Amino acid sequence: MLNMKNYALITGATSGIGYELAKLFAKDQYNLVLVARDQRKLDQTQQEFSSYGIDVIVISKDLFNRDEAFALYNEVKSRGIQIDVLVNDAGQGVYGLFQDTEIDRELKIIDLNITSLVILTKCFLQNMLANQQGKILNLASIASKTPGPWQSVYHATKAFVLSFTEAIREELKDTEITITALLPGVTDTDFFSKAGMQSSKAIQDPDAKADPADVAKDGYEALMSGKDKVVSGLKNKLQTGMGNIIPNSILAHQLNEQQKPVSEE
Fold first, then answer.
1. Domains in the chain and their CATH numbers?
2. Could you say which of 4, 70, 203, 206 is the most buried, measured as most Cβ atoms within 10 Å of its Cβ?
3. Which of 167, 91, 73 has its CA nearest to residue 128?
4. Is 113 exposed, middle or buried (0-12, 13-18, 19+ CB in 10 A)?
5. Residue of 7, 30, 73, 154 marked active site
6. Cα 244 to Cα 116, 239, 241, 249, 263, distances in angstroms
7. Residue 249: its H or E element
8. Is 154 assigned a catalytic role?
């Protein structure tokens, strides 16, 4: 029998920022619905967070496939679970010049970073409106603020996420529902290995990578206070602030130099 605590659904919940967000929800006694592709990691995470005395449900879905996003919503609905907080954390990128990268990989990234996020936001938002309460956290990125040579598709998807989130927030201003965008910078997760980005100049300094726990804390606090968005980290705040006054053509050139492989020094 389900207890009466609120439920938070988190995608990409077994590692990185998603995992750290799940931990914060668990500590605050939210029940969890954790979503990822790897069932083994989900089972491990379920066992860990169950120690907080909460209900932890794990669901394996591949959100690179938009049909799996609909299936996730239908499975949650069929279990009679009301989602009070939705965290769209799952996302990936691919590194390389657009002319050289694989189109199938990029289309899957668009489906993961955009299409599945839109589906889950639409479905669970409609339930939240019916229940007159709810919160949504969407993982954008400081990449959403600049063109991204060597990661052109990833940056574009995050620009979509930020714009999408800000538009819906305005639509919801007279309701009890809030939607928040979290904009991290370079963070110490497995994002870069999955993107094939180990050779990029931008990630060679390990000290420049933020702790995912710190990023999650910034996002969690912004979500709970109902903020529209939060840029995590002082350096990233300064960078995005400067980006607001520098032309995109110059930003694109600067990022191109930063993102090039080390071999092109």
1. 7-264 (3.40.50.720)
2. 203
3. 73
4. buried
5. 154
6. 29, 9, 5, 12, 31
7. helix 248-259
8. yes
